[in-house]
Amino acid sequence: MAETVANSLNEQLFPLLQKERFVLLTTIDKVTGGPNTSAISWIYARNELTISFAVDNRSRIVENIKNNQFVTLTLIGAGSVYSIAGEATVEVEKMEDVPLKLAKISVQIKEVRDVMFYGSRISVEPQYEKTYNKQAAAKLDEQVMTALKKA
C-alpha cells in the first residue's frame, strides 16, 4: 500500500481535517537548512487542495516558512500514514477574534503519499488531551477553528 500518490486530499482524508487533529508539520529550518518537525493541532482543510493551520506568530515555524515555503504535513489516520507536501504561505500574521497572537498559514497541496510501510496498517490513531483548564482550552479551540474556517 505504501507510496500511493495523489495531488489532493481524497474522500477519506478530507473529513479527517475538518476538525482539530494531531498532525506533524515539517519545515526547512532557516538556520540549519535541515528539517524541523513540530506537532500541531489547529488545522483545517478548506478544500481538497488547501489546508490552513494556526501557530504562535513568534514560532520558528513562521520564520522557516517565510524563508522556505516547502512543508510536509504527516497525518496518521484512515488506517495509514500520509505525507502531504505543499507550498505554505503566511496568510495572516495575527488572526482576528483569537486572544493569542496566532498566524494563519495556508498550504497549497502538491502531493499526497501513503507512506505506511508494506504489509501493515494503523490500528489505533494518536490521541492527546489538553493539560490545562479544559473549559478554557475548549473555548480557545473553538475560537481558533472558527477563525481558520473564515476565507
Automatic annotation (TrEMBL):
Domain of life: Bacteria
Matches recorded under SUPFAM superfamilies: FMN-binding split barrel
A Pfam family per the record: PNPOx_N
Annotated Pyridoxamine 5'-phosphate oxidase N-terminal domain residues: 10-100
InterPro entries hit by this protein: Pyridox_Oxase_N (IPR011576), Split_barrel_FMN-bd (IPR012349)
Annotated protein name in UniProt: Pyridoxamine 5'-phosphate oxidase N-terminal domain-containing protein
Organism of origin: Ammoniphilus resinae
